[in-house]
Amino acid sequence: MREAILNRISRRTFTEEALNQEEISKIQAMLDEINQEAGLALSLMLDGEEAFANRSKSYGMFKNVKAILVMKADPSLENVEEKIGYYGQALMLDLTDMGLGSCWVAGTFNKDYVEIPEGQEMYCVIPVGHIDKVTMKEKMIRGTISKNRKPISERLTGSEDAPQWVLEAMKAVQLAPTAVNSQHPHFTYAGGKLTADVSGEWPTDLVDLGIAKKNFEEAAGGCFDLGNGAEFHKN
Ligand SMILES: Cc1cc2nc3c(=O)[nH]c(=O)nc-3n(C[C@H](O)[C@H](O)[C@H](O)COP(=O)(O)O)c2cc1C
Fold it and tell me: Residue 161 Cα, ligand 1 centroid: separation in angstroms?
């Protein structure tokens, strides 16, 4: 399994060292490529600290946030939320490979400090920056969460009949981030076909679906069709 999937955890405490020019250029190139391919409008904001300055808004969980990825797009784009999740997770894994820390954030920041052009909607932000060892606070947040990872049998209907490669890839799904660790995306293996869906009851469900699909693809080798309930095609 890709190291970045195993190593990634939400990082909320950054060092005071800002991203350097090389990192900024690399991230910008990644964003340009995604925007071109997927029709999204992802951008890098280097002075995102204000959005995380108000302790009551960020729940005091974030420290030294500077750069943030603004996860935005034209809301009329088809499957827009799933694409935000899918490509955001692709980015996050690459950022992990670069040794940088990051965290999906949909709620605990102040949206007023992020300017969104007319005709676009912001779905989330992803603070990104340099990190030290995992702090006690991060360990505590992560510790409570890891205990709450659902077993594969709860995330995969048909797990008794599923081949080993599906069960292996479901481990990557277990490790995928979801909003408030809800783990809503659900997979089904039936009649030799694998599909992924989500109820859509929660506002971030479709973003979570895109994230989970990306992790599954990375581990299994292959790709999903776009859409809720869509099918996976193995390489
Ligand atoms: C779409 C999405 C939105 C999230 N929003 C927030 C947020 O507003 N604040 C926060 O501290 N964490 C947020 N998270 C991070 C989750 O809490 C975290 O991914 C989850 O608890 C699992 O922990 P892990 O990422 O360390 O594996 C979000 C995650 C996702 C996928």
Answer: 31
Return the CATH class of domain 3-137: alpha beta
Q: Classify strands 121-129 and 67-73 as parallel, antiparallel or unpaired.
A: antiparallel
Cβ of 81 below 6 Å from ligand 1: no
Is-above-0.90 flag for pTM?
yes
**CATH 3.40.109.30 in the chain, residue ranges:** 148-229
Answer yes or no: is the C-beta of 51 below 6 A from any ligand 1 atom: no
Residues whose CB falls within 8 Å of the CB of residue 197, separated by 6 or more in sequence, listed in order: 185, 186, 188, 209, 228, 229
User: CATH for 148-229?
Assistant: 3.40.109.30
Pocket test for ligand 1, best of 58, 171, 181, 215 (most atoms within 8 A of CB): 181
Interval 169-227: pLDDT, tens: 999 999 999 999 999 999 999 999 999 999 989 999 999 999 999 999 999 999 999 99
